[in-house]
Each structure stands twice: as structure tokens, then as C-alpha cells.
Amino acid sequence: MAKLIFRYGAMDASKTANALMVRFNYYERGMHAVVLKPGMENRDGANIIKSRIGLSAECESVESFLEERTPDFKDADEIDCIIIDEAQFLSVAQVDQFAWIVDNLNIPVICYGLRTDFLGKAFPGSARLLELADNLEEVPTICWCGHKARFQARVCNGKMVTEGEQVALGGNDMYVSLCRKHFMNGDIGPAFLK
User: Torsion over CA of 58, 103, 137 and 86, rounded to 10 degrees?
Assistant: First the structure.
């Protein structure tokens, strides 16, 4: 039986690299895994997902994938798995659509994304995945102190940002992963200040 899986973690947890490894495992076995990301996530180009360690693959936008298959899903028997990167940017309705695909078409959907934003608040897509997913799996990374990082702080001019738009696309130059203690204390660590 197919499952809706949400693999979440702070930034720098290698979620995209993990997604690409899962895709490769399907490919290696002669199976077809579709890789998707929300259209708004275009840091590496509209149709590419790329990990920090340099792994990359072509992908399709969530929006075009769903639009091309609604209301009919004619190629369901040709898809062995759906892998979604940056799933925090999914809408609640899109998460519901992917849950429907799992339940009615028996296609596993594996979502990778952040649990919370830079203020520690859940993204709408992540919140819905936490509510609906069959499996929740944390992808760990570490804070500058060595403890498990569960949050990411937005940083500007060496200071933790505490207000602003929920979404601001950026990488290691703009965000730092922190444990709860350092997130709550606003302590971004010595390395980020250099």
C-alpha cells in the first residue's frame, strides 16, 4: 500500500540530496520516479533541483504536473513514485491532492521540506503534511554547538531577523540552522559572524 511520507528537517540537513538518492534508487531498478518542486522555488532554475553537494536532476513544477493530470490521471500506471522537494511551499490544496493520489492511485509520494519558517512557525504546506502524512521522518542536521538543529534563522548583517515575509529564497548566506536553545536565544554562533 502506498504512503504519503514527509521527511522534514532544518536547512542543511541534505534533504535534496536524499531526494535525489531515492530517485536514483528507483531509476537503478528500472522504475520511474517523478521529481517535482513548487514553481516558486527557482534558485537553481525552474526545472532543476540541486543539492549543496552538487547532485542535481531535472524536475517538473508541482503546478504543471497537477494541472496536466486533473481531472484524469492517464499516466498513473507509468509512475512508480512521486518525489517532491521544497514541500513546505505546497498549498494545503496541493497536499490534499497528493494524499488523494496516494489513496486512490496507489502511488507513493515522498515529500521533503522544512517544518517551520525563520520565525519557528509552520509553513501551511508543512502543517498539512504533518496532519496527513502516513510517515513523518526527521532528517537531522546540527547546530553550530553540535546539538540537533530543528530551526533555521534568517540572518542579515550578522543579526537574526525576527520579522518579515515568510518566504525569502536564499541559502547558507542568508540562513543558519540552530538548535532550539540558540534559536530561542537568537544566538547564530561565532562562525556566521566572520
Answer: 30
Which residues are annotated as catalytic? 86
- Cα(13)–Cα(9) distance, rounded to whole angstroms? 6
Kindly state the helix (H) or strand (E) to which residue 34 belongs, with its residue range.
strand 33-37
Question: What domains sit in the chain, N to C, each tagged with a CATH number?
Answer: 4-140 (3.40.50.300)
> CA-CA distance, 191 to 194, in Å (whole number)?
6
Q: How far apart are the two ends of the chain, measured CA to CA in Å?
A: 50
**CB-CB neighbours of 169 under 10 Å:** 11
- Supply the pTM of this predicted model: 0.91
**Using CA atoms, how far apart are residues 65 and 46, in angstroms rounded to an integer?**
13
Q: Which amino acid is at 57?
A: A
**pLDDT truncated to tens, each residue of the chain (194 aa)?**
899 999 999 998 999 999 999 999 999 999 999 999 987 776 776 788 888 888 888 889 999 999 888 777 888 889 999 999 999 999 999 999 999 999 999 999 999 999 999 999 999 999 999 999 999 999 999 999 999 999 999 888 888 888 877 766 655 568 899 999 999 999 998 866 55
